[in-house]
Amino acid sequence: MKKTYLKHFYGGSNQQKLCMFSKKAKVTCLVATFCAFAVWTYIFAGVSFPFIHKDRLQNQEDFLLKCIQGKSFKQKCPRDNPTTHNPTNLNNHVCPSYFRWIHEDLKPWREKGITRNMLKKAKKTAHFKLVIVDGKMYVEKYRKSIQTRDVFTLWGILQLLRLYPGKLPDLELMFDCEDKPVVPLDKFQGPNASPPPLFRYCSDQWSLDIVFPDWSFWGWAETNIKPWNNILKDIKEGNKKTKWKDRVPYAYWKGNPYVAPTRQNLLQCNVTLENDWNTLIYIQDWIQESNQGFNKSNLGDQCTHRGMVPLQHYWPIRNNSKCTSLKFAVEWGNNHTHKAQSIGEAGSKFIQEDLDMKNVYNYMFHLLNEYAKLLKFKPTIPRGAVEICPEKLMACDVIGGNKMRFMEESMVKVPSDSNPCTIPPPYEPLALEEFLGRKANSVMQVEIWEDEYWQSKNKGQ
């Protein structure tokens, strides 16, 4: 099995959280760093989307930064930007099937809706309240997030408003920029339950936190992770460097192991004098990388996942027996090279076609739109909120560095020439049960193969 292959299946670098649309059957976390198999379409730097009409890109820029120079001046939000969305391409298509999880994530509030009192309860851990009224965005900040998570999350939502001007309804929401879910399912059971609606980057099957794409889609300045559109090009170029048949037949992982116990356990799977688990495990020292200019941290040279299916898009690894599980996975791939390659290609195709930046914005749009339908109160601008726009709190106030560069590169410069895709209907209960059952059966099949492999190997010793 080739190096990049298992890197895709097992995944894991400090730059990538191991929860891309998953929740085991329902995991959830949207991130910007994926695996390195894809053959990606290059997306013009500084222009965010392949679905904007070519003539518009050549002849106009509807959105320009209108910065006021000088420290004595306060930036103001322009009033002459487009406020309505008038696409000329009226062809529509259905969103990828994983968009159905939006309905599942919002199901706890489907019957009763969301009251202002519920929203107040979500303030306990929130970093900010986001308000959209008449197409304008306002933020009431409660506390600072780690690094620039809050800044780039707000930046991403601003780009959504620029992509589809005037299309989002009025809304209010609370956002927590930490990773760990904090709304436990078991505390909000029964007909009288009123869970707080809290947006964050990750959730799991035991939690009710509402999952939203994470900040690094627009760049992670502190670790030199570029905006996702730029990374697509790097991945494409990286895959050209080594042909599939010439890649190292090992599983590969590089990241910071000290952020979670499950990562620390992975260090035991590295090659030693006594054991060769067919894995290469590297510790990523971000301080050292920063001092060296991040020259060894390019994702294009280096990924479960609600929409991805085991044995179709990736190879599952046991969490409680990583080393033996990894060794078997590599052995299986080396003995079934065509099947292994087809799984890797299917995973890459899924990412290329269903998880591109266009669908990130479409997912954001439909999540916020469906959420707004549940509000039982009229959104209003809080007294302590300030209007947010690129000029006022973002790019105009940033002097140089990755932060400014990533904002410039990820900025939406023209509205989309098409409407958002059409969100598919919710899962029927039986269909959802069958889908989750297929995934569980695929994992069980791999575990059976793995057990048989080790039983046979132990008998031969």
UniProtKB/TrEMBL annotation:
<keyword id="KW-0472">Membrane</keyword>
<keyword id="KW-0812">Transmembrane</keyword>
<protein>
    <submittedName>
        <fullName>Glycosyltransferase family 90 protein</fullName>
    </submittedName>
</protein>
<feature type="transmembrane region" description="Helical">
    <location>
        <begin position="27"/>
        <end position="52"/>
    </location>
</feature>
<dbReference type="InterPro" id="IPR051091">
    <property type="entry name" value="O-Glucosyltr/Glycosyltrsf_90"/>
</dbReference>
<feature type="domain" description="Glycosyl transferase CAP10">
    <location>
        <begin position="167"/>
        <end position="378"/>
    </location>
</feature>
<dbReference type="InterPro" id="IPR006598">
    <property type="entry name" value="CAP10"/>
</dbReference>
<dbReference type="Pfam" id="PF05686">
    <property type="entry name" value="Glyco_transf_90"/>
</dbReference>
<keyword id="KW-1133">Transmembrane helix</keyword>
